[in-house]
Write a structure and sequence with these properties.
It is a single chain. The protein is an alpha+beta fold. The chain is 28% helix and 42% strand. It has three helices and five strands, in the order ααβαββββ. The longest helix has 18 residues. The protein is globular, with a radius of gyration of 14 Å. 14% of the residues are buried. This is SnoaL-like domain-containing protein.
Length: 130
């Protein structure tokens, strides 16, 4: 498997894990120092610990997203030695709802545990941007 294929497979598995509710598997794709910047988040989260704290408060409030489908589309991956960048459109479909499209950039580093996301940046697209 090439580096590009391995990165794409890791990202696909990340979203499959989310749909399955498998947080340990989802988290296995994240570096401990991952920064997470997303449109809906309360400012940039600068580590897995920050992300975990956000998820704990979200889940305690019963606000974990329920999705019928979640998939990376139009993926482009570039690899340079132990660093990779993946750009794609994430399509999230709520049960009975309309698909939402998010433009995503992930920066990954190769480690002994495979490719880990060190920076995740996601911007929700308005319907007129699709």
């Amino acid at each position: 498997m090439t580096g590009r294929e391995a990165v794409a497979a890791a990202i696909d598995d990340l979203y499959d894990a989310f749909l399955a509710g498998d947080q340990p598997r989802f988290d296995s794709h994240l570096h401990p120092d991952v920064t997470t910047w997303e449109t809906h988040l309360p400012g940039p989260l600068r580590s897995r610990a920050d992300l975990d704290a956000y998820r704990a408060s979200r889940d305690a409030a019963g606000a974990r997203p329920a999705l019928a489908a979640l998939a990376a589309r139009e993926m482009r991956v570039d690899v340079w030695d132990d660093t990779a960048v993946a750009r794609y459109v994430l399509v999230a479909v709520p049960p009975g709802g309309e698909p939402e499209h998010t433009r995503v950039t992930d920066v990954l580093r190769r480690s002994a545990h495979g490719w880990l996301i060190v920076h995740h940046h996601a911007e929700l697209l308005r319907r007129d941007q699709d």
